[in-house]
Amino acid sequence: MIRELLFELRSIAYLAIRDLKIEFRKKHEIFSILTFSLVSILIFSFSIDPFSKYSNEVLPALLWFIILFSGVFGFSTTFTRERDQETINALRILPISPQTALMGKTIYGFSLISIVEIVIIPISLVFFNLSFKTNLFFVFIVFLLGTIGLSLIGSMVSGLAMYSESRTIVIPMIMVPLILPIIIPCILLTRTMILTNMANLIIPEFKIILFTLVALFSASIILFEYVLVD
Fold it and tell me: What is the pLDDT of residue 127?
């Protein structure tokens, strides 16, 4: 049992590292995502007065909007790359479960979006004159949970749409409604952490995010076996 678990964990790590190596070898995808994010921040910085009393109400939504659509761009190739390079059949015949493949892709997507967040969050704080009044540990947890949810849904949807000729349209159409139960509480939490340092105000949104993540993880684990087979 322990040996099988270790094999699955090694397989997940191998798939994630392999995809990251491919990504950093080509670099065009991560650069395009970063370019989109930075240009979005620059455009919004010209249209919103960072010193306005309403900016703290609007800017958390803009920040998560940028993260969301950066994820949409990133996950458009998560599984379609396997199909285009004709390696999807090799992935199917490997002695690993479909759930292992999904987790490997999810970790790859999590790493990709985390790199984007590491770049754009400090820049956003400077451009929009933002600061968090809550303990930074809670800030870290919010962005961690939001990124996990985005990565899991993005990987699942990418697998669903990899054979669609209109996948560039199908992926955001499916992904955005599914991610809303996570993104909306993350926006509310981010706004609360900017406006106040009262940690008890963020508990309800945390519960919603955790419940949604558990539900989505369970559904993905059950359904992805049929996605990879078909």
Answer: 82
Number of helices followed by number of strands (H, E) in the chain: 9, 0
Are the C-beta atoms of 145 and 139 separated by less than 8 Å?
A: no
Distance (Å, whole) CA 97 – CA 224: 10
Which pTM value belongs to this model? 0.87
Dist. CA 77–CA 25, nearest whole Å: 15
DSSP code of residue 54: T
CA nearest neighbour of 185 among 170, 168, 204: 204
How far apart are the C-alpha atoms of 101 and 91, rounded to whole Å? 8
Q: 91-100: per-residue pLDDT in tens? A: 677 777 778 8
Closest CA to 116 of 223, 29, 21: 29
